[in-house]
């Protein structure tokens, strides 16, 4: 059982890096800061997010918070130059993983992704409470050490966020749906406003402001993010295109029933978004699974649990190095527990009912 | 010079009708309520929005606030059965106008459209402050009486809203851009969530909630609205489709420059949305125009001013029945005044510099 005691090194002191530094300092951990911009390190340090890293420092955990294009390189360097567990907070998880997949040290890497941000960027926008109650994906790969996974989970909880376990590939499909495609469509709607006469835009109400808000985000950053997740984004954009053609047909031919049916699908989608954390308490149930205590088995269980499409609210690992089999507790909504059990049993896991 | 003294009759006591009744009562006007549902009238009346209309009542102004499909019929009936000025608050303006265009009484009709609403509906959702600081389009047709236009403007100001003058056809193109197409695209994004695995949706952040919020609106109502504005909506959906294909090409071929260029158009669009009313005061300038005092001339000036694409912040009409020519004052942003003057002069209006 590992415990997060620090030091935590943060590479990249922008909005996310600085916010994580502030949250770790609030919890009393030592935080080491580095950034290609010495000015950003000075600013973040001045805000109380940590101190500049020196060559003698030996971090327990390295958090890589650099722009998407540089993630792979910086993660590989951190694995090579330290003995620390390494995570990153990038918006796409398959790319960085493939950059380190060949490394013998890859077992110390566990990707992650906090669903928090701001239209502002840079260290001055940072806040120790940026992650309060927000989802934060943890995406172990098949070679991740269970101890490394636990350490990253501790970081997530220490920041006040809610862990969401996904495999790297499923994470990328999930954010294509919940973030990248909504961003691109918001941008297409906003672009039509750029073409509009000034007196037409005077009619803009709260609706169009909400729809287009995210489209104000940095085009360079979102260009990197979308490009890094091209496959999953393209699959969904293809669906959107098909549905857009159906809307055009329905409006053009005056088929009110078809149009209303599509609008009803939209209503169903808004209802599918889970309530914000802090809403009414839903009844939970624990599902217990025996896991052979050798490398790769925990990650395999996670991948199979994730494949069941049930949201795992918490994972507790009870592994005693003296025993050949550990017990893993998966906490899920009560109404979904039976489905998870059946799904895991069909994949030959030993469950405890 | 007409003055709004009441009674004001409101046909349709849903969210909008009840809210207008409350605002008029707050200003001390007598308000008469009617609705196909006697229960809605009782509820609105109980909230203080007015009293049930009787056969002996003689309204000065009738406000039609019924669902889009019934606007034309109800407006025509109000013109036929009263001597009042008639306006409506429907989301689309060409349809109702064409329904009354043949009527000899059409000079008493002036369309309008408040840009305010709520995810809730019905009289209980009504509020006398629903329109505070919101844009409210006034859309005179070429046969509208100047006195009727002024009476509707008085209603708009009494409700605390900000008048935006547009022709009916331009209004419809404007709301296709600022409301109907954003709604349809939000609905397409939301529909993809309805298809998504539960554990993927756990990553939903504030961004996707904002993008999809309007898609929760009543599919029957929005089906009516979009169908009533099919031509303008289709023109823009065609543009969106072309741009969506370009996004798919750019992501598919890894053309980062093209993708970034499209995202930059989106940023420009978010910046084109005017600041909310109540923001910093912008310097204004009045443009004075001579208008021959016979029917149709004021509407023709309005149409020409609107065609200049300058947003008209205020119109003041100084017409003395004893004189053959009146003076109309158009108030616009100082930086746009020269453009409006040149535009009107090129259409043979006599301006006073």
Give the percentage of residues in beta strands of chain A: 15-25%
* Net shape of chain A: globular
Query: Strand order across the biggest sheet of chain A?
Result: 3-2-1-4-5
Which residues of chain A sit in consecutive blocks of at least 5 with pLDDT less than 50? none
| CATH level-two architecture of the largest domain in chain A | 3-Layer(aba) Sandwich
First-to-last CA distance of chain A: 25 Å
The CATH topology of the largest domain in chain A turns out to be: Rossmann fold
Show the largest interface: A-B, 98 and 98 residues
Give the overall pLDDT of chain A as a whole number.
90
By CATH's scheme, which homologous superfamily of the largest domain in chain A applies? NAD(P)-binding Rossmann-like Domain
What's the tally of helices of chain A?
13
Q: What's the order of the H and E elements of chain A? A: EHEHEEHEHEEHEHHHHHHEHEEHE
Radius of gyration of chain A: 22 Å
Number of E-state strands of chain A: 12
Determine and state the CATH class of the largest domain in chain A: Alpha Beta
Walk me through what this model shows:
The structure is a homodimer of 353-residue chains. Chain A has 353 residues and is of the alpha/beta class. The first copy, chain A, has three domains: 159 residues, NAD(P)-binding Rossmann-like Domain (Rossmann fold), CATH 3.40.50; 101 residues, 6-phosphogluconate dehydrogenase C-terminal fold; 69 residues, Alpha-Beta Plaits, CATH 3.30.70. Helices cover 47% and strands 16% of the residues of chain A. The first copy, chain A, has 13 helices and twelve strands. Chain A has a five-stranded parallel β-sheet, with helices on both faces. In chain A, strands 10-11-9-12 form a four-stranded antiparallel β-sheet, covered by helices on one side. In chain A, β1, α1 and β2 form a beta-alpha-beta unit. The longest helix of chain A is centred in the middle third of the chain and has 27 residues. The first copy, chain A, is globular. Chain A starts with 7 loop residues before the first strand and ends with a strand. The interface between A and B is large, with 98 and 98 residues.
